Amino acid sequence: MDNATMPRLTALAHGGGCGCKLAPSVLQQLLADQPAGSPFARLIVGTETGDDAAVWQLDDETCVIATTDFFMPMVDDPFDFGRIAAANAISDVYAMGGKPIMALAILGMPIEKMPAELVREILKGGSAICAEAGIPVAGGHSIDSPEPIYGLAVIGTGSTANIRRNSGARAGDALILTKALGVGIYSAAFKKGALPADAYAELIQSTTLLNRIGAELAKQSPVHAVTDVTGFGILGHALEMARGSKKRIAIDADAIALFSHCAELAEQGFVTGASHRNWASYGMDIALPEDLPIWRRHVLTDPQTSGGLLVSSRADQADALLDEIVAAGYPAARIIGAVEEGEPGLRVTA
After folding, report:
1. How far apart are CA 141 and CA 129, in angstroms?
2. Cα dihedral: 42, 46, 51, 55 (round 10)
3. pLDDT exceeding 70 applies to what percent of the chain?
């Protein structure tokens, strides 16, 4: 099968990337009757605050970090799809302050609609990112499914003292976001053939950039909390941090870096269904400026596939940490807000 007859991956799926995630309100309903992990003393991070990965304490010094993430394609290039999915899955381990040690592939493919060479390219893309992270793809599981699905289960390790949850933010902290926003908006434009030519490279560069800086930040005592920003958007994941930490968070929308075409595409209406679902799920706990344009709200609820890390740190160390993050290869990192005392919630200024 030549390139002209190859199927478009995005045409085989009803959604793509982290925009496939269930809405926060739906997920909350589904998990409402699930047993808590509290009877297991060594499970030091479970489902209680919607954190990025589970953490099991092996001994006084060492933890095992476990996570899984998979989704449908947001791009048509199979190698790029594999890379994005792998980087997104590995990110959860970095967000907890750990280092990945191995991965298992999760694969569901409509075999009758997709040639084997296309599937192999997806797997090669995932393996390439795992190699960049210094880990093997040590196995996995595959099924025949109606839509293409790919991702990883990732195992990592970390120091007990360096585990960083999304619930450790302290009043007076500054908030740093390490990547620009706009992944969902770009993917919506891509699916409709409206993404500018130069924007695709920007999308791939950001979504395949590993969040390995998380493992380094977790070693530093001024860093109190970390989470990665994915399908619930910056507002959703910041709200999870506020709720888990029992603090109020303030975000300056003007301080957040955006992809170069993000604003114009959002104004033109290129937003995902997940953006609407996100706002419907948590908008009642967000205070927005009365004159904030709707497109700006969509940017703030935009699902980020393989997005950046949201870092809560001592305010007097934030500038130094930001310089370190930028120097490590994250030029879009910005200080975007602060943590305050008050009822858990989130307010946005612009």
Report:
1. 19
2. 30
3. 91
